[in-house]
Amino acid sequence: MRIALLGYGKMGKAIETSALERGHSIVAKINSQLPLDQVNWSEVDVCIEFTRPELAPQHIAYCAQKQVPIVVGTTAWQAALPEVKTLVLEADAALLYASNFSVGVNLFFELNRQLASLMKAHNAYHVEVSETHHVQKLDAPSGTAVSLLDDILAIHPNYTEWSLDAHTPEQIPVVAHRMPDVPGTHEISYISDIDTIRIEHIAHNRKGFALGAVLAAEFIYQRKGIFTMSDVLKTTL
Predict the structure, then answer these.
(1) CATH number given to 2-101+207-236
(2) Does pTM top 0.85 for this prediction?
(3) Is 10 a catalytic residue?
(4) What residue ranges of the chain are covered by domains with CATH 3.40.50.720?
């Protein structure tokens, strides 16, 4: 499979390594030195995008116009998702997006949903969420943390929103830490006066994210429509 990397920072380089290990080729590394309009898109089977939130929607639109399936790992752009979905479907194109491509994190998503379902009947506990990432991480809280929070809100009746500066019992407090060289840590805690129940996912490196992005590219190749990482996991787990 011939892959174009849209964004060639630390994540792009990790994806390149994973893609080559799985027998794919990287035919374009798109950044400030190689803009979109200088790529021979007829030689691209799938584009993998890790850039900036304000750029992701226009990158999706560009690939839809070129009829190149795109895997998007950029987060914090989902306010534009309804418009983007309409555009992709009207173009009969392909989009796969996720807040996190790590297989382990997606298993953690399921564990978080199950724990929220168990805890919703126990009002003695209140939930807190924290995440820690590298200092280059632009969005806070992370897209992964937002997905975890949204899943709790959908299940637990005691909460109506999350907040970085929560002041009411109906708000889930979330803390975002930024530290050097931290790939990503997410923690969900249910705390009472008596004890604490906690689940945690710690990424040791970027390999899990990179492999998941390549698996997503393999999944979306020659498909049409809009997909998420849950669709990929149904075929790989």
Answers:
(1) 3.40.50.720
(2) no
(3) no
(4) 2-101+207-236
85, 120, 134, 137: the catalytic one is 137
Distance between CA atoms of residues 230 and 15, nearest Å? 19
- Helices (H), ranges, 75-206: 81-90, 103-119, 143-155
Q: ∠ CA(81), CA(164), CA(183), 5° rounding?
A: 70
| Cβ 70 vs Cβ 227: under 8 Å | no
Longest C-alpha distance within the chain, in Å?
62
Choose the catalytic residue: 59, 133, 156, 186. Answer: 133
d(CA 199, CA 191): 12
Q: Does domain 103-203 have CATH number 3.40.50.880?
A: no
- Residue limits of CATH 3.30.360.10 in the chain: 103-203
Per-residue tens of pLDDT for the chain, all 237 residues: 999 999 999 899 999 999 999 999 999 999 888 999 999 999 999 999 999 999 999 999 999 999 999 999 998 898 999 999 999 999 999 999 998 899 899 899 999 999 999 999 999 999 999 999 988 877 889 989 999 999 999 999 999 999 998 889 999 999 999 999 899 999 999 999 999 999 999 999 889 999 999 999 999 999 999 999 989 988 765
Judge whether 133 counts as a catalytic residue: yes
